[in-house]
Records
---
Amino acid sequence: MLKKIAGDLHFWIPCAVLIVGIALLIVFGE
Amino acid sequence: MATQPRVDRSPGSRSLHSLGVVCGLAAAAWLGAAEAPTKLVTLGFSPFMISLGMVAGVFVARWTVPMALKGSRYVFQDLKEKPHLIIWAILAGALWAVANTLTVFAIRDVGLSVAFPLWNLNSLVGLFWGWLLFNELRDAGGAQRAKVLGGGLAIMIGATVIGLATSQQDSAASGRAAAGIAAALGAGLLWGTMYVPYRKAYLSGINPLSFVTIFTVGELVTMGTLAVLFQGGPEPFLRELGRMRPALFWLFLGGLCWVIGDLFQQFAAKYIGIARGIPLSNMNQLWGLAWGALVFGELAGKAAGHQAIVVGGSLVMIVGALAISRAEAPASEKECWRRAIRRECDRYGMDMARVEAAVSGEDPLARENSGRAWWEFAVFLAAVGILAWLARGAERQAIAMNSGWTALLIAATLAFLIGCAWVLWKRTRFS
């Protein structure tokens, strides 16, 4: 199942956006 | 003259569109009502703790009404059939929690009047993903597309006007403007992208009650982690939690309203897609305004011109909602949605006929899973017990409220709940 999810391009879009969000929290959240 | 795509006028198709629109409007009422109890919370708590209190309320409330509707056996079987959606739901919950936290920083750094219009872009982000990834608005024809885009824009502009006019806070003149703008834009991007897992889930035929169950887990874990980190560790976190005890009931009550609103939002995303459903549920701004202005008197003493702007913004939002409610997807667009369903079925090995049945409002799973386990009643009672225990220790905040308007708005919100739940039950049995 994990292989199928990893091969789904759609999955990486929210993942990338979540990483951007966490990065924003770390950089600007002080 | 260009030929417009044919709108499917069959009773089933038409009732599903109307059902989705009603769900979007009910979502707005309940998401807006969720703001009211939080206004009763005394200021002075960390925004993270307030968010966490509400999310914990969402988690507990999840085990009351929704579980009573379908039961956990059904939910677990639904998730077992589509296990990939567990990860998608956790991802959606994490996106919500991070976005919510970013709004706190955005308000602190640039003020609500600048931050709100920026994160309000989330409906356009959702609309874009719906078009790009899930074939929404494709082959829809110019008229339908114009209604959805125009309606979405009108709701966004109206909400922004209301947000600006009701903001109590001036733009902060801090040296952190760039950080605040980045945080607000980030929140809009995260919330708009959160609708990708939503649509993914409903093109796979999962029941919104099952999806929300896992969503709340992702939300609670992420929000809890952020609260502990930003409070400076477990010890200060627990100290603050103890200090919040008298206010927790109001936050939990807000969470309960939020769960109901979110469930309706999920049903809207299921039956009319995110391009149409999300702008409609973003009408919650209008309900938040009604609670603030009519019950808490937040606009009292404002100039007539100021109040006229608020009324104008509200009317623009209503026109936008009317446009979207009349933008039913034509048969050609539905065919594009069907292609997206087939793609999901091929990728994750799901039965196309079964998924299509679920997407069209049937409930094949319910025929195979009936009855409740004894422990479900115990969990239900425990959840109700937590709410009752918190209510006992709640302190009534010294805030003036108009009891007439409170009763009227509660009646209107309950009417949406009962009316929408009735049509959902009648047409789909909460599928």
---
Amino acid sequence: MPYRRKYTFVALLTLAICALALYIHRHREGRTGFIDNLFISVTGSFQEQSMYFVRGARSLVDHYFLLVGTKQDNEHLRRELGFMETKLAALQDVEAENLRLRESLKFSEKIDYNLLAAHVIAHDVSAEYNGVRVDRGKKHGVRSGMGVISPSGLVGRVLRVTENYADVLTIVDPTSNIDAVVQRSRARGILTGLANRRQCRLKYVDQLEDVALQDTVVSSGFGHIFPPGLLLGYVTAVDRSNNGVVQNITVKSAIDIYRLEEVFIVFPPAETEKLS
Amino acid sequence: MYSLQPKQKNFLETLNPVFVLLFFYTVMIARTTFDSVLPEVFDNLDILLPFIVYFGQRRSVAEGLTLAILSAHFYSLSSSAPVGLFVVHYLVLFFLARGLSYIFYPDRWNTICLALFVLSVVSRLVAWPMAALFEHSLSPAWGGVVMGWFFNTVFGYFIFVAIAILDHVTAKASRINIEMSEGSL
């Protein structure tokens, strides 16, 4: 009898492990089923209402009770500064690119991207991951893998899409990996999040590459998910003291996910053609 | 409550898991939308932990496991983490909470806080290898981690007490009473 119980336990445990493996396999790369989509849709609509309430209450307190007028001016100027910084970073990148192209007398094909505005309606529920949910989904043409940007810089890419909502994997998320370049020296690496509100790490940058504090890190445009030259962040620490072949580079992201309200979903050139 | 008929009590008790899941759902929506107001506090808060500790401590294995798996899956769908990671993570915590209940049973504020604190620390230790299992890494940002332990203990206590009240309202007999009546303790 004890043997039979032991075998039953082992059989049940094996079945449970197989079921768990199957469950993980079915959901890999943001894939969802009908019930999951239904859950996300219902949750999304509640989150949308809740977020509007939170924003309304916060806006009321900020604009009417605490700082009448000053806050609005400050916000306007901050937004304008964000726009200018992004524009400047993009122009510097264009300048550097032009120089390189002039030298080689080769011109890359200009790629047009179409943008779709979306509102951030919820943040990630967990403490270690940093995704956001936006109020645009399949019915607006959004697909998994599309880039997401904001006036402050690059936000991330679409991870999971349902009919009305999409989950975005932000650049500060530890599972995010984005091809990036240091604008000044063109040192290339992979930017990954550190499970922190604003900190990222630039990985796989060779010890011999020239990277300094306050250097601007921008998107490389590799893969045509995002336009090249989009602001990702600024270098805040460079550590070459280890004996390895790469540097430890810490980057402060240009976006603060808790301040994000509106973002733009980037339609790649092929999708833009389909839409038009 | 005491004026209810046994049949009505049974009916309420049957519905208890649904009420608990609805309560978790409400807390989850609040967590995902209100965190932009106080990100320093909410960013370190694990709202599922007190639920898992409660399921591990005060539910039968079958019911606790079902509730833990369902809530962890819902949690996964509101996060950018790979689906499956939280299910595995919280299953480990569920069994640890279960094991802890044989060492001490949290029924007062200090023992509840102790259980939440211990499992909050263990949760972080479990998170690192779990992240590695799903092919990424979590940075050991100790400031946030320590703050997380504190907030998980304080907020977790209130959630734990709220579920206990929900159990009381729905006439749910907690595991310790069942086991004592069966003479298994």
